[in-house]
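Schema walkthrough. Field components (list of strings):
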Amino acid sequence: METASPTWNLVGHRWAVQFLRHAVDTDTVSHAYLFIGPANVGKMTLALALASALLCQNQTDAHTPCGTCRACRLVTAGHHPDLHIIESEQVGASLKIEQVRDLERQVALRPVEGRWRVAILSRFEEATISAANALLKTLEEPPPYVVIVVLTADASALLPTIVSRCQRVPLRPLPVALVREALVERWNVDAERADLLAHLSGGRVGWAVRQLEDKAAFQRRTHRLDDLDRLLAASMTERFRYAEKLARTSAAVQEILDLWLGWWRDVMLLAADENALLTNVDCRNMLQDHARRFGVKGSMDVLQALQQAVDRLNCNANPRLALEVLMLDLPR
Amino acid sequence: MKVSCLQENLSKGLSIVGRAVSPRSTLPVLSNVLLATEAGRLELSATNLEVGINCWIGAKVEEDGATTVPARTFIDLVNALPPEQVDMELVVQTQTLNLRAGRSEANVKGIDAQEFPLVPVPEGEGGISIEADALRTAISQVAFAAATDESRPILTGVLAKFEEDQLTLAAADGFRLSVRTIPLPQPVPDPFSIIIPARALVELGRISGEQEDPIIITITPTRNQVLFQLTDIVLVSQLIDGNFPDYRQIIPQDWMTRSVLDTAAFLKACKTALIFARDAAHITRMHVKPGSDLSPGHLVVSATSAETGDDVSELDANIEGEGVEIAFNVKYLIDLLSVIGTPQVALYTTTSSSPGVLRPVGDVDYTHVIMPMHLGR
Amino acid sequence: MPIRVLPEQVASQIAAGEVVERPSSVVKELVENSIDAGARDVQVETRAGGKRFIRVSDDGDGVPAAEVEIAFHRHATSKLVTAEDLARITTLGFRGEALASIAAVSRVTFVTRSADEPMGTLLRVEGGQVTALQESGRPPGTSVTVEDLFFNVPARRKFLRTERTERRHIDAWLTRYGLAYPGLRVTLSHDGRTVFQSPGNDRLRDVMIAVYGLEVGAAVLQIVPEEPPPEVRVSGFVSPPALHRANRSYITLFVNGRWVQDAGLTYAVIQAYHTLLPSGRYPLAVVMVDLPPADVDVNVHPAKSEVRFRDGDAVFRAVQKAVRRTLLQRSPVPITPSAPPATWPTETSAASQRREQLAHLRPRQSDRQFQFEQRPAVGAPGESVLAAATERLPPLRVVGQIGGTYVVAEGPEGLYLIDQHAAHERVLFERLLAERERAEVVSQALLNPQSVDLSPEAAGMLEEHRETLDSLGFEIEPFGGATVLVRALPALVAEQNSDPLQVLEDVAAALVVGDAPLSGRVEEAVARQVCKRFAIKAGQVMTTAEMEELIRALEGCTNPRTCPHGRPTMIHLSVAQLAREFGR
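Field assembly_structure (string):
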């Protein structure tokens, strides 16, 4: 890894880094930030970079974390005694009031090693109402040495009173080219794979890196696209059987529907003769085939049905019911 | 690191620092004890990021170094060793600590000492010296009144106010207040106040049991920690940030009735009342009955339980002023009477709804305030 | 309708028994008289829980001057003339004893004016003796003032409960009349404060809003009428499956306009929700059953809240079917989550049906609060519904504790798994309310008063219910704006090892969202919050002695099977169930 970098060693998010750097440089760090952006876009990485900038022991170069001192290393590992990372046990679980209370108790004590205590609350949309209310109390009058960083994919799912008490830092997906470049340069991915991953990542470096770590991920994608193709030709009984099976594996449903959404978006683009923006660049033949068969209108209908299924599942609809409706709407 | 020491010393040192180990922390290294060589001694250290305890024991150091080992495992292991010399050697590569004592040998897997939180050490002179016994007594008389609930972190702390040649400790939990003043051998140049977690002071009271020399108090330059220096032991406490409520406003200046009671008899009556009061939110009634020229006054302590029965104790009391009836949480009274330390105690009251003040007779430096209870209308 | 003295024969046919037992029965009799007199607007005022003063005024027909005195004869009624009339009862106060009985034990001032007469009449009766009879002016209608109830019967006076309890009984009756007669405007005030008013616009849903609050009122489903109208007509409102309550007391039944307590009909309503509600939860319902007067015998009990049907099964089926039909047609959630059909119907109908069901789903945000948890049903489906919720516990023997959360106990009827937190909450709740009745709630003063910032609505609620809060140990006062100053807390809370002031915010929040504006339920809402704070938490290891103490206390509870929030305190596995599970 490189040493002191003006970008805090992040891929992209230049504006956000500049904004936070300026605050650190001029000693005008806000007591609370809200990082908003899709999952795996880099919120936690940025929050840890901010923590490093505040806690780094080599404060030589205008508050740019050195990345090598003990404090920086402990922050990166999530083990710094003045860094508190709070999140639900797993994606989809809730962040509980006890966790916020515990944080409250710890931040009442002055910092252990540095000048600051940094609290990162990840996926805060998963906080229970009482947990959110408890945080509100801390946000109202935080001790002067506390910096709270709330991370969320969906600011509208938070209490408005929490949002209004934080400085908002929106993080948008990065350009595909930037992700590709980073994969090649930092993670030593070969150009072809980097290109595909960058496209599929939707501009989320974290997602692409996770795919690198998860060997089976690519295989799963292939299977799921095959399923999609097969279902188009399948009988209604087969489709319902598939829906039933899918409904039982709730964790994967969201992933599959997202994948399909991306797929039909490509189909629609191809049908409209738009080649430049494709995501699934490795499956051009099948995309072409679908585009020919279903056209712009057909693919748009599928997209709508898929989106509806996603929305319904978010509303806690019976997954099987929602998926069956989707199956009925799939064209042949 | 290569070091030898006596099993007894190691075991004793671990029993002191072991109290600061935090077994269920998000930071794995906090469930470990730090072992580090220092100027011909072995330093043991543990912290839960609120209280940290360092202890030095005599040792023969062959090679300097440091590591951290899981506290539970290590303490159990050391206690099981024969009372002989223990030889320890660290394999840096694997962070494994090899122990030999007598015919036993063991290997304990550790975590790099670099991960262990930095523990500040007292630097140079300039600490505030205080008599160990006086501090210990003051802690026992004040710390119990601090809040145990975390909703107002300030109240879980004890205010320590250094002013001229006095240290005042104060704690309050919303329903009672305890204030103790102790003399300082040397006046402080500038007055200042800090808030120390009550838990840290209780721990200090516990580990300073054998301390005879004065305890030296130092505040770190960042004002983040306070250090209590004992012989071969340093306790570091993180400080609580914020403003402590003004306790002086709470102590009533006037009273209508002053009852002087025998401490032991009063405590006994309260303990008896507790048997019945525990079913009724610990409410216990005090009826102060002034005497006449011929007969002494009385304090009648009574408690009633709808389920189990009732109890009445009459105590002789020296009473100045009007008769009054007032009720208190008897647990609060028992807490106080157990630590007050004088044979006689004075209870100052005004009305049944104004605070009760208790002071040891013959000791003006301790004041305890308890808010009354009453029955709903 | 002119008043006549009942022939002796009729009078004796009527079940004997005292009509007047407490202030609420006075209110009930007088209101029923008003309804019978064709009133559209009935106003009820009480003081000191009705013990000192009750006045019921109406705009009904009024009694002609010539008949005023006769109204106070025992067994006088304007409704029944012969025994045959009893068989066709369509009005309520058929026993005719009401006025006379009331007048015998209090001081009654009766002012009435028939619409046909220019002047009204004032009659004063004290302890049964007429002390004044004179002309008096008032608009058409009747007003009856009852003062010093039981002034001449000290023995009865002694049995009156606290003002609060008496008020609660009156509240309960008035609410029922409001629900039974949506066209009637009912106003109730205690000590000068209006506590309940029904709109009187003939819309039952509006009355339900007045009784249960806007949220419930807006959510309830109107019972779908059957076409053509059958002999037994069922109407009213029932809660959708997502809205449920901890006990069956939210099921209110009326037969031919009369409030009845009927275990069978209540069960018919619950049955209709079979598999739709988490076990241990009950629907909220206001159900009107109308059937020919000849098919129902109302004269079973002098309190007149029980009925006997000529064909009970038919009525049961009619109610069960009507409610079930309503749920199937109007329920906004998919109703049978399990058991899909074995074969698929034609695609089009299946698709449209699913789309329709899904179309009712609301967006995620607002849905969050209403997600209901599915609790495991005990034993075979249906059995849990049958278990009587109010039954006391048999003596239990503590076996042990599981996971620091559940107490295992054994009783004559099998195995009991008891949720220690829920059970302790129940014990504290009943104890606290009992202490409150005896004015024995212990309050602990604060070292220095603490201010608590609330929403204006919450602060208003606390202010409005200050008296109740006071009786439960909270000493508070307004401190400008939406801030209240707390001077003392219930000792139970004060001893608690968590933020003592938080409880006040919880109480305020509970009062704000509470669906019951009537005073009787406020104390319970407050007590629930206090107990929730204090009760032993899940995960806390208990000694055997502590567990035994808890179980003993639970055995003493009147409602041991649910916690004050309505969750079950225990799972019971009967000996038979155990045997079945093990295949013995």
